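Exercise 7b. Backbone tokens:
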């Protein structure tokens, strides 16, 4: 949906997970084995991954100043189940949070969120304001006030709707 470059660091995982659902067409990549494999999720884990995805989407909408798209399990409650470990690099002494279970999608997302918090990038990951889109994107605008995943598509549609509403 978007021409934007991917989010930095571990946020690429979060962005990619949220964008597994095309809200306009209803196509869900987690419905396919290939789509689930990309996130290390089995068919049995797909519903849990969808719950996480929609909680992330609601949080990203909040980052953009919009209400949740629907009732969801709070993201904090989902990530509380994801154990993280502090790792220390022996060569330079740097510390990082890593998933205790590297396979768990919830733990990998929790580690990505923690990394983004430290880097100051977490609130720049947003969901598009368009109700038929809600695509995740990383807002690189200087003021951090981006509203749409694509100015050429979602932004143009919103402006055209506003213009047409004035004509009536």
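Sequence design result:
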């Amino acid at each position: 949906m978007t021409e934007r470059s991917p989010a930095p660091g571990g946020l690429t995982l979060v962005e990619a997970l949220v964008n597994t659902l095309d809200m306009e067409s209803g196509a869900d990549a987690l419905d396919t084995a290939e789509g689930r494999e990309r996130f290390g999720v089995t068919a049995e884990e797909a519903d849990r991954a969808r719950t996480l995805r929609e909680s992330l989407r609601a949080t990203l909408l909040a980052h953009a100043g919009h209400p949740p798209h629907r009732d969801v399990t709070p993201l904090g409650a989902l990530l509380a189940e994801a154990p993280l470990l502090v790792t220390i690099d022996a060569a330079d002494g740097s510390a990082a949070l890593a998933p205790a279970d590297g396979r768990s999608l919830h733990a990998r997302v929790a580690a990505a969120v923690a990394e983004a918090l430290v880097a100051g990038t977490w609130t720049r990951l947003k969901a598009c304001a368009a109700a038929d889109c809600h695509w995740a994107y990383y807002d690189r605008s200087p003021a951090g006030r981006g509203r749409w995943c694509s100015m050429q598509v979602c932004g143009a549609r919103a402006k055209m709707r506003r213009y047409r509403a004035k004509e009536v």
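Instructor comment: Residues 46-63 form the longest helix (18 residues). The mean pLDDT is 88.
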